[in-house]
Amino acid sequence: MDDDQEFCLRWNKHQSTLVSVFDTLLEKGIHVDCTLAAEGQTLRAHKVVLSACSPYFESVLCQQYDKHPIIILKDVNYAELRAMMDYMYRGESSLHIKKLSLPNSNVTIYCDVSTPSPRPFVTKPLRKQLFDSLHNLSHPGANVTARLVAERLTPRVTGSWNASTGS
What we know:
Protein name: BTB domain-containing protein
Shape: elongated
Number of helices: 6
Domain BTB: 32-97
CATH topology of the domain at 14-94: Potassium Channel Kv1.1, Chain A
GO biological process, one term: R7 cell development
Structural class: alpha+beta
Radius of gyration: 29 Å
Strand content: 5-15%
Largest sheet: 3 strands, mixed
Strand order of the largest sheet: 2-1-3
Function: Putative transcription factor required for axon growth and guidance in the central and peripheral nervous systems. Repels CNS axons away from the midline by promoting the expression of the midline repellent sli and its receptor robo.
Organism: Euphydryas editha (Edith's checkerspot)
CATH architecture of the domain at 14-94: 2-Layer Sandwich
Distance between the termini: 110 Å
CATH class of the domain at 14-94: Alpha Beta
């Protein structure tokens, strides 16, 4: 047997153990070192988990020198923040999909109703078609745009115009 040997040690279930440990640390409030705030409610978290899961949080937290920064998330509702934290710590989050009727229509669509504002769920094959339809509402095309510009910006001439006098 050689005096110089190399061994490889492998930790079985390493990833699942880390996920479980971080979740337990969060639930018990151990080693939490930052606070996220939305809609006047707060959630405590670990900077290392936030940074590992989100380039945004990594960027924000790299610029913070406070021991326990508080990050206020404007225009994020608390239910969405909670779902995001579940996703980061547990690797999963739940949607509550429900079939809803559109107002003043006989059309029904599927929406995620797990947050206060229902969000439509669009299947992958329809996403491009939906995007194009919505995009075309705000960009009607070159000919229509030219006509609209001409109608709105070209002064209307009333009466007759005399080419020789310019009036």
